[in-house]
Structure formats: structure tokens, C-alpha cells
Amino acid sequence: MKEKLIVILFAIYIFAFSILGIVLPKDIYSYNERRKLKEFPSLTLDNTYVNKLDAYLLDHFPYRDFFRSIKANFNYKVLAQLDNNKIVIKDEYIFKLNYPTNQKSIENYKKNIKKLLENFTENNKVYMVIIPDKNYYLKDDNLLKLDYNYLEKELTKLDINYIDIKNLLNLEDFYKTDTHWRQERLMKIVQELNKQMNIPYEEQDFKENVYSSFYGVYYGESAINKKPDTLIYLNNSLLDSLKVTYLENPKLTTIYNLDKLKSKDSYEVFLDGASSFIEIINENSLTEKELVVFRDSFGSSIAPLLTPYYKKITLIDNRYIDSNHFLEKIIFKDQDILFLNSTLLINESYTLKG
């Protein structure tokens, strides 16, 4: 009788969730995981159809986030696993394992830079900064990490002035639930950049604006209930006076887009998030120099802190714009050039456009 009851309950469970899977609305995007969900595959006769169908059903399983949370808590707290789907939680910080070292991607990144170097003049001073992902500061020898020494060795072969910042940072300079660094802790990096790039450094008086409900990208991926981060963005009268032009969002004219604080990714408050080409004019700069920065999302939060020192800063995120387009908008002559990218991008550089 007991066995029969178990079979009946299991059958009811399968039937109920099958019906729910049919009648419940299908999401297109998972905001918790920050990715597009699989679409229902077109019927094909090859052996990939079953795999595609399986991926679609997993993405649209009823109450999927609820069951993701149960699985994550079970793996961490019962099985005592170090990671769950490459997500590691340690000392209140959430990490995502970035491994293995992709040597082909590093070569592709070098190739991309070499192509860009052909457009510069002898009067352009070119610099490179490699931003370590926060896994670099994760003190656990049992977890696999990038070969940071190899990555640095390969990139410093380029004929570019290398500025080493890895020893200036520590884990507290990063958000607990997100991949990015914290803007309010970056003045030491600005000071080092100025020193290495021969730009006079002058202490700035910033007001700290606090937003206390920042759930970073790793929060949703972890499926674990954690306290939100506090996001702080710095401002003063100088930053308020900047003239900012965005290629994708011409109506926005400020260094911060405060509407993004209430979006799913509050980090996009810095320079409007994914922006391919931005020009910043400072009529009250400490120098007459210009700076061109090839950057990823880490550059969004440090760029405002560089604006007091340059008459004009041009920010190029060449994941979203190719060289044919931005070369129409900028003439390279005597600007400082800064390649400012994280190890996360360098290890997955195929997102860069040619």
C-alpha cells in the first residue's frame, strides 16, 4: 500500500508539473542569472534536437529559481561542496570561478591590440592596465584560478607601457555580490595612473552618494539569499559640470544615470552601463591633455575619477563598436592611450570587435 501511494504521488507530481510547464507564461530572460533563456527549438532530424529541447525544458521548468535555491543550499550546507555551478561563497563574498586560462583568447586579445596600435601616431603615449578579477584575491589553494603570471607575461610582451596595479588592490575593493570594483576605493589606482602617465595628481573633494540595495550579478547566479551590497558613487561640482555625449543614448548628458539605480543592474549607474562610445569634456581640467580609454565595464566606475585631469576623455568599449566606426569619430594625434581591461574580458576576448 505504501509503495502504491508513493507511485501515485509521483505520478501526480509529474502530471502537475507537466501541466504547469505548459500553461505558465514563458520568460525570455532570466534577470537572476542575467542571461537570455533558451527558445523552443525548431524540429530537426539531427541528434542535436534532443539536447536543445532538454536545455529549453530546464530553462523553463516551473518555479525554477525556487528549486535552484534548494539545490544550492543543499550543495553548500549538506554536501559541503566548495562550489555550485562554479559559484563559490567565502567570507560573505560571492565568486565565480574563471578557469581554465584560455591561451587562444589571450592571443586574440593581443592581436586585437596590435591592430589598434597601427592607428596611433608616434606622439601617442600608450599604456596598459590589467585589472585582476576578484578571484585573484581569493585565498583558497583548493580552488582553480587563472594563471595570472602567464597572462601578465604574455601581455607585457606588447610594446606598451605596463602599469601594474594588482598589489594596490585587495578583496575589500570589490563588491561582495558582484564582479566589479568599488568606485569609492579607487583613488589609489587613479593616483598610480597619474604617477605612471606623468599627470599631476591633485586630491579631489567628493561627496559619497549611498545606494544600499545593490544586488550584484553573482547574487542571482548563486541562488543563495545574501545581504545586498552598498553601492557608493562619488560626485562633486566638477563632475556635475562635465559635458558628456553617449553614442547610444544622446538624451543623457551626465556622468551618472541615476535611473539605473533602480534597474536590475545598479552598477549601470556608472556611465549608463553598456555604452560603446562616450566623449567627456571638462572645461575646468587641470591639464590640456586628452585621454582615449579602451575599456570594459570596470572602466565605467573609474573613468569619472580621471576626468579632473583631462580636457577630453574618449571611452571606447570595443565589445560593442568596431574600429571602422570609432575611427570615423576620432583622430589619433597626441593623446594618451590607455588599455584598461579586466582579466575576465582578456580570458574571453572573442566578444571584442575587429
Write the layout of secondary structure elements.
Elements: H1 2-23, E1 29-30, E2 35-36, H2 49-59, H3 64-78, E3 87-90, E4 93-96, H4 103-117, E5 125-131, H5 148-155, E6 161-163, H6 187-196, E7 207-214, H7 217-222, E8 229-235, H8 237-240, E9 243-246, E10 277-281, E11 290-295, H9 298-306, E12 312-316, H10 323-326, E13 336-342, H11 343-346
Parallel strand pairs: 5-6, 5-13, 11-12, 11-13
Antiparallel strand pairs: 1-2, 3-4, 7-8, 9-10, 10-12
Textual characterization of the structure:
- With 354 residues, the chain is α/β, with parallel strands linked by helices.
- Helix content is 31%, strand content 18%.
- The protein has eleven helices and 13 strands.
- The chain has helices spanning 2-23, 49-59, 64-78, 103-117, 148-155, 187-196, 217-222, 237-240, 298-306, 323-326, 343-346, and strands spanning 29-30, 35-36, 87-90, 93-96, 125-131, 161-163, 207-214, 229-235, 243-246, 277-281, 290-295, 312-316, 336-342.
- A seven-stranded mixed sheet has the order 6-5-13-11-12-10-9.
- The N and C termini lie far apart (68 Å).
- The relative contact order is 0.13.
- The model has no long low-confidence stretch (mean pLDDT 87).
